Amino acid sequence: MVGCGCSWWEGAGARLVHLSSDALHGGRPEPYGDEEPPSPVHVYGAAKAAAETAVRAIDPSAVLVRTSLIVGEGSKQIQLCRDALAGRAVLFTDELRCPVDVTDLACAVLELATSSYAGPLNVAGPDAVSRAELGLLVARREGLDPGGMTTATGRSSGLVRPAQVRLDSSRAAGLLRTRLRGVVELLTG
User: Fold this and answer.
1) Looking at the whole model, is its pTM more than 0.85?
2) Band (73; pLDDT cuts 50, 70, 90)
């Protein structure tokens, strides 16, 4: 439908829901609201910020879902925790995130696809935990000894990544039927 004045997905009755990341924020102790402008401190975050800018230019009515660490059986985050518990990876004690369950995130995205909401929306869990704390939760759930878990600080590793990125998902919690469960509930319930 090039040249018809509308986007092809609008002509098809589709809606653009873009998945973004908390990595587009620079990190700070206070939670980030939905409308906070990107302030990336590394290349991945800058790429996410640029993608959001492109999506807004193409379709101002799109939803920009900003999410955090995605957890669930088979997820990269849970496997990283298992690897760290076995001494094959390192979990940082100073990187705080708000993990979200993959099923909760998928249900939220499906809801947003049929909504009229436009713009950025934080869709993350309510619990801010470090990657090391996430590892301890995985150890407890799976009955693993946390004594072998390897930890460090992000700062000491030399990585340039934001340390504290808490997403305030209260708007999403009020807007969606899907309940965004916290990682503590998910891994101890």
Assistant:
1) yes
2) confident
DSSP string covering 138-159: HHHHHT--GGG--EE-HHHHT-
pLDDT at 1 over 90: no
CB 101 within 8 A of CB 71: yes
Q: Give the long-range contacts of residues 78-84, CB within 8 A, separation 24 or more.
A: 78/138, 80/131, 81/131, 81/134, 81/135, 81/137, 81/138, 81/139, 82/138, 82/142, 82/144, 84/135, 84/149, 84/150, 84/151
pLDDT surpassing 50 at residue 4? no
Question: Using CA atoms, how far apart are residues 156 and 158, in angstroms rounded to an integer?
Answer: 5
